[in-house]
Amino acid sequence: MRLVITLNDGAVGKDGKFYTNLNLSDCDIPSDVNALQWEEHESNKGHIEFKSPLMQNQEITELPTWINACIVKWQDAYDAEQAAILEAQQTGQ
Fold it and tell me: With CB atoms counted within 10 Å of each terminal CB, which end of the chain scores lower, N or C?
């Protein structure tokens, strides 16, 4: 699984499928985090980018627990999109 999360635009990308403007405020993301990138399939590592330009990226080898809430937000957006597609197909639009 490849994950990209950017807080500036509320974006969560999973395996290349992105949703933006998600409300991530209740995901318990530390306030100093700006973004996260993760590659599970190839390397099982990633990094966290911080808001402060004085802080260097933090390399990670496991996902922080708050990422689960972000994945739930992504899944909710994906499910809503799929339901809308199915409804449009059923109504012929």
Answer: C
Give, rounded to a whole angstrom, the gap between the first and last alpha carbons of the chain.
Answer: 33
Cβ atoms 12, 5 nearer than 8 A = yes
CA 53, CA 26: separation in Å to the nearest integer?
25
pLDDT computed for residue 93 by the predictor? 63
Structure tokens at 47: 């990094």
What residue numbers bound the domain in which 16 lies? Answer: 2-91
The string of pLDDT tens digits covering residues 23-44 is 999 999 999 999 999 998 767 8
Taking the C-alpha atoms of residue 64 and residue 38, their distance in angstroms, rounded to an integer, is 11
From CA 42, how far away is CA 58, in angstroms rounded?
19
Strand order in the sheet with 11-14: 17-19, 11-14, 2-6, 33-39, 45-50, 58-60
**Domain count for the chain:** 1
Q: What is the pTM of this model?
A: 0.89
